[in-house]
Amino acid sequence: MLGRLNHVAIAVPDLAAASAVYRDTLGATLTEPQVLPEHGVTVVFIDVGNTKIELLEPLNAQSPIAAFLAKNPSGGMHHLCYEVTDILAARNQLQLQGARILGDGEPKIGAHGKPVLFLHPKDFNGTLIELEQV
Amino acid sequence: MLGRLNHVAIAVPDLAAASAVYRDTLGATLTEPQVLPEHGVTVVFIDVGNTKIELLEPLNAQSPIAAFLAKNPSGGMHHLCYEVTDILAARNQLQLQGARILGDGEPKIGAHGKPVLFLHPKDFNGTLIELEQV
């Protein structure tokens, strides 16, 4: 079921400062920031050749990543996104295995305009996993 | 400087249980466990096509990941490993930019038999970064 690693998401308190570190210190190439109001974040993508790093800054205190940053003020790795070919088949198989899907269990449209689901980190060794249908 | 993402390392308290979740629930293909006494870990690799996931279980209380698991008992994302072509050139450039290298700053031989260095997570938004020369 598990396909390619689409991206690693890193929550950051200051997107401009984090972007400067990746650009100037690590020599990476970054996209322009995109504001995604429906996800409560501003995002910058870094293409590292075989996958992407996604830097996430919360838009406001209601952002899904605001609570994470409250616990980890300097930021940290937030989730891993894997590609799947059929997100409903993947969800049904995961639920049969006893894994918990976050929210109402229905796919939402993610940052790339494709259906996504998040799996409960307690079922996967403390790792928040996003599945994206490609 | 930053090359491909070689792997994402996830610290786990029970490698057999975590392996079963990735194999049975997520349908992934895993390597056999390898004991690496010089790194204080037992490791299983998961090939997801474009990169690898590395599951790490501490060998003992002196393991570098034992303290991480004491803070995160169910496990969690531990570090990201990027490839570089020249690890000494990368180190020198990072130090010029003010980034801190862990340990004595000299590359060690990593799990793949290649020179590696770790960068201070406080300089990279709470993310522990490993560089591996390929």
Automatic annotation (TrEMBL), chains A, B:
Tagged with keyword Metal-binding: yes
Entry GO MF terms: metal ion binding; methylmalonyl-CoA epimerase activity
Keyword Cell wall biogenesis/degradation: no
Highest taxon of source: Bacteria
Pfam families: Glyoxalase_4 (PF13669)
Every VOC domain range: 4-134
EC number(s) stated in the UniProt entry for this protein: 5.1.99.1
PROSITE patterns in UniProt: VOC
Class of this enzyme: isomerase
Residues annotated as transmembrane: none
Catalyzed reactions per annotation: (R)-methylmalonyl-CoA = (S)-methylmalonyl-CoA
GO process terms (BP): L-methylmalonyl-CoA metabolic process
InterPro entries for this protein: Glyas_Bleomycin-R_OHBP_Dase, MeMalonyl-CoA_epimerase, MMCE/EMCE_epimerase, VOC_core
Annotated keywords: Cobalt, Isomerase, Metal-binding
Annotated NCBIfam families: metmalonyl_epim
Family membership noted in the UniProt record: Belongs to the methylmalonyl-CoA epimerase family.
Record-given protein name: methylmalonyl-CoA epimerase
Protein's organism: Phyllobacterium myrsinacearum
Gene designation: mce
